[in-house]
Amino acid sequence: MKFFRLLTPFLLTIVAILCFTPAAWAFCGFYVAKADTKLYNKASQVVIARDEERTVLTMANDFQGEVKDFAIVVPVPTVLQKEQVRLTEPKIIERLDAFSAPRLVEYFDSDPCAVTDSVNLPAAAPRSRAVSQEAEKTSDRSLGVTVEARFNVGEYDIVILSAKESGGLETWLKRNGYKIPRGAKQLLKPYIRSSMKFFVAKVNLDKFEKSGYQFLRPLQISYQSPKFMLPIRLGMINATTEQDLIVYILSPQGQAEITNYRTVKIPSNTNIPLFVKDEFGEFYKSMFQTVYTKEDRKVGFLEYAWDMSSCDPCSADPLTQEELKQAGVFWLDDNSGSNLSASPSFRRPSPRSNVFISRLHVRYSRDKFPEDLIFQQTANSESFQGRYVLQHPFQGELKCQAGREYKQSLPKRFEQEAQTLAKLTNWNIQDIRNKMKLSVGNLTYSWWENLLSWVRLY
To answer: Strand 387-392 to strand 270-271: parallel, antiparallel, or no bridges (unpaired)?
Structure first.
């Protein structure tokens, strides 16, 4: 089956995205698992590096089908030159995914009989602070389509089009071998009315075979515009189910948010039963679907917001300066904007090194997201992460009064974890209790049977 999907701001993609397999990382024994994009069968990923009106947009592809059928159509605010288009490696998006993914962490209760001034329960996550080759220009007056530029970048053949009406653009694309899904004509109209141009790319099969790559590399484009938006409507043309979109926004300021739909923080910093360690992927998918439904399926979720220089706990190392440049961050130093040479205004007068990442997760459908996404940058640099806590009971001998009180408190704590998990996921509470009994049964504490009697009274 061949399908087409929208991926990015000003983007009609007639595609879907590569599956990535980020490596596992650990931090100080606390981080144990992450909920990255591997959880979803279809999860489009977009990277947007933006400062003021300057944008570098990276489009990752999960195209499924024969390479010869791949095509993307990206509405852009201006005619792009070859110097404003480049290719990058999929591993950069893998790194962003791994670094920002919601995470599972674990802590271990210390001996309540030991004298200590510290608090054993986990604390909330801390806050952190062109000159281009002149392409041949042709026009088909009967269709109202003009080829503004034509060039190739790596394995892609690219044309920049302008159009007077959507029917003519649709016809031109079909005549030139682009497989356009039904219904594109109507959805192209608003972009034509806005005088936007169209970045169109397809694969040059000969160059792709010679490149030695097994997958299509992400395309990265640079432009300047006051518009900070993501046209997702075109990606719904052939969609039969809801689609997941992960947007990584890199900014020198702070958090990014959606302005025409509510941006909601994903539930976080909750203690859940120990058995979830072996079921974290299913837990996160169930929790996301539950809160998504609760919010009437029409909000965007903030899954991560943090200064790129640090993380706590880390599910992957922060990206290096070189990796950030590959991801499109152009304000790190005077030499980082080489791919923006067609637009001198992208160059900053002085070096900057601050990079803040926001990870936004949108699950969208035709009826709940009738508008393209519009973003804004904010000065809010508060740190946030989707973070879920496993709290292991102390397993040593307890003879003091504090130890006896600690043992008596555990049944209520376990039941609270069960209730929290049921509320987050809509899982059956009795099934949860049964799994909890299995997961801690090896502790052989006499107080565990007290939990069952406490539950009956609850």
So the answer is: parallel
Q: How far apart are CA 432 and CA 81, in angstroms?
A: 57
Between vectors from CA 13 to CA 7 and to CA 19, what angle results, nearest 5°?
60
- pLDDT digit string, tens, across residues 20-50: 222 222 222 367 888 988 888 778 899 999 9
Give dist(CA 251, CA 378) in Å, integer. Answer: 9
Which positions ≥6 away from 185 have C-beta within 8 Å? 166, 167, 170
Q: pLDDT tens-digit profile of 170-211? A: 889 888 878 777 777 888 888 888 888 999 998 888 888 877
Tokens at 177, concatenated:
């071998």
Write the CA distances from 210 to 87, 202, 283, integer angstroms.
16, 16, 43
Contact criterion met (CB below 8 Å) for 94 and 20: yes
Over the stretch 217-250, which tens digit does the pLDDT of each residue have?
Answer: 899 999 999 999 877 766 666 566 788 999 999 9
Inter-residue contact 316 to 35 (CB < 8 Å) = no
Q: What value, to the nearest 5°, has the Cα angle with vertex 139 and ends 135 and 145?
A: 105
In order of 2, 82, 211, 318, the CA distances from 205 in angstroms are 18, 20, 10, 36
Tokens of 273: 């039963």
Find out whether 393 and 274 touch, Cβ atoms under 8 Å: no
How many Å apart are CA 458 and CA 453, to the nearest integer?
A: 9
From residue 203, give the alpha-carbon distance in Å to each of 69, 98, 211. Answer: 8, 28, 12
- Rounded to whole angstroms, the Cα distance separating 19 from 97 reads 12
248: which 2 tokens? 């990584």
For residue 27, the SS3 value is: coil
- CA dihedral (200, 245, 39, 89) in degrees, to 10, reads 40
Say if residue 357's pLDDT is above 70. Answer: yes
Pick the closest to residue 391 from 427, 425, 436 (CA basis): 436
- Give the tokens for residue 312: 């706590």
DSSP letters spanning 342-396: T-GGGS-SS-----EEEEEEEEE-TTT--S-EEEEE-S----EE-EEEEEEPP-S
CA–CA distance from 156 to each of 24, 133, 275, 384, 427 (Å)?
32, 16, 47, 38, 47
Q: Are 405 and 285 in contact (CB under 8 A)?
A: no
Radius of gyration of the chain (CA): 25
**pTM (two decimals):** 0.81
Maximum separation of any 2 CA atoms in the chain, in Å: 90
Q: How far, in Å, CA of 449 to CA of 437, rounded?
A: 10
